[in-house]
């Protein structure tokens, strides 16, 4: 991830006395854009563009805005909405499966700029779990924006309507449709300690190349989806069935005898990171239902692993 200059007044322009108030919105904007796009790199670009539009206005125009924070969020949301409209076409050209960019625990982020700038960190909660983001990916852009703005960030439908370009009533229906998708995909929540224990057992079985132990930890209908982005090798289609999924991990371990597997927090949930010679080569997120692993997402695309690079 490249380091970008901080937004601010144009050269020669008087310093804005409300700069600190405007910049305090940065974390909220990063959080909003990441949930809408599933990409930290794209979220940062959106925030930069949002601030550029603010500073492109005259001081009089800025002072006429009653709530700068709401204005910034609305503009960021609209930029994301436009990006989502073109994302489907880009995803169709993507090599293999597309998985949202995985995020580490803030304390584990390897990028020096991110370690020292808390305003750039995404707040990790259930709304950034990989399972949740994957469901968001199944929504239309309008559903996704309406749901995230209203249900996650608590913006009233009148403001959501300005972002989406629909009536408040239409946005209410969009959010309702999105909630149905979320409910249909949700499984009973496994306590965090239970998830961590299952992921730890999976790690140990993977390291031991114990296929029977892996099968015992996997739901019979388990799936694994890998994302190499056409840059590195990865399965191009989902692998279904506990036995087949277990065999995939055994094969990976056999092809990479020097693989080191570490327990890490992935998007706020227990996950695994695999390294070769100290370099992260895959980040694995899990969806645990009861005492079995139901879904696995393995991100190999190096462009999506930059926050994990030491």
Taking pLDDT < 50 over at least 5 consecutive residues as the criterion, the unreliable ranges are 1-6, 11-15, 109-116
- Count, helices: 13
Structural class: alpha+beta
Tell how many strands the DSSP assignment holds: 6
Please, what is the average pLDDT?
88
The dominant shape is elongated
Listing every helix as H and every strand as E from the N terminus to the C terminus, the arrangement reads: HHHHHHHHHHHHEEHEEEE
In whole angstroms, the N-to-C terminal distance is: 12 Å
Helix fraction, binned, reads 40-55%
Question: What percent strand?
Answer: 5-15%
Q: How much is the radius of gyration in Å?
A: 21 Å
**Biggest β-sheet description:** 6 strands, mixed
| Order of adjacent strands in the largest pleated sheet | 2-1-6-5-4-3
Offer a quick outline of the entry.
The protein is of the alpha+beta class. 49% of the residues lie in helices and 15% in strands.
Write the layout of secondary structure elements.
Elements: H1 19-23, H2 26-37, H3 40-55, H4 59-63, H5 68-93, H6 112-116, H7 130-137, H8 141-152, H9 157-164, H10 168-185, H11 192-208, H12 211-217, E1 218-227, E2 239-240, H13 242-255, E3 260-266, E4 269-276, E5 279-289, E6 292-299
Parallel strand pairs: 1-6
Antiparallel strand pairs: 1-2, 3-4, 4-5, 5-6
Helix pairs in contact: 2-3, 2-5, 3-5, 5-8, 5-9, 8-9, 8-10, 9-10, 11-12, 12-13
Structure, described:
The structure is a single chain. The protein is α+β, with helices and mostly antiparallel strands and 310 residues long. Helix content is 49%, strand content 15%. The protein contains 13 helices and six strands. The two termini are 12 Å apart. The relative contact order is 0.13.
């Amino acid at each position: 991830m490249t380091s970008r200059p901080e937004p601010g007044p144009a050269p020669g322009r008087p310093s804005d006395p409300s700069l600190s108030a405007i910049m305090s919105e940065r974390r909220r904007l990063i959080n909003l854009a990441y949930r809408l796009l599933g990409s930290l790199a794209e979220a940062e670009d959106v925030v930069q563009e949002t601030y550029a539009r603010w500073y492109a206005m005259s001081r009089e125009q800025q002072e006429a805005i009653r709530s700068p924070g709401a204005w910034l969020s609305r503009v960021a949301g609209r930029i994301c909405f436009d990006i989502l409209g073109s994302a489907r076409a880009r995803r169709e050209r993507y090599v293999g499966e597309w998985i949202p960019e995985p995020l580490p625990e803030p304390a584990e982020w390897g990028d020096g700029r991110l370690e020292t700038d808390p305003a750039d960190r995404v707040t990790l909660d259930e709304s950034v779990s990989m399972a949740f983001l994957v469901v968001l990916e199944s929504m239309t852009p309008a559903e996704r924006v309406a749901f995230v703005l209203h249900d996650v960030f608590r913006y009233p439908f009148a403001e959501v309507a300005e972002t989406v370009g629909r009536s408040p009533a239409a946005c209410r229906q969009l959010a309702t449709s999105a909630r149905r998708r979320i409910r249909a995909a949700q499984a009973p929540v496994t306590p965090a300690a239970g998830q961590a224990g299952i992921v730890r057992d999976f790690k140990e079985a993977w390291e031991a190349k114990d296929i029977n132990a892996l099968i015992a930890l996997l739901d019979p209908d388990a799936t694994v989806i890998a994302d190499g982005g056409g840059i590195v090798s990865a399965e191009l289609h989902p692998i279904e069935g506990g036995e087949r999924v277990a065999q995939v991990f055994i094969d990976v371990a056999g092809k990479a005898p020097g693989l080191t597997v570490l327990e890490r927090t992935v998007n706020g949930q227990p996950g695994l990171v695999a390294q070769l010679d100290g370099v992260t080569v895959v980040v694995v997120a899990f969806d645990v239902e009861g005492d079995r692993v139901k879904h696995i997402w393995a991100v190999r695309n190096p462009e999506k692993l930059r926050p994990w690079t030491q």
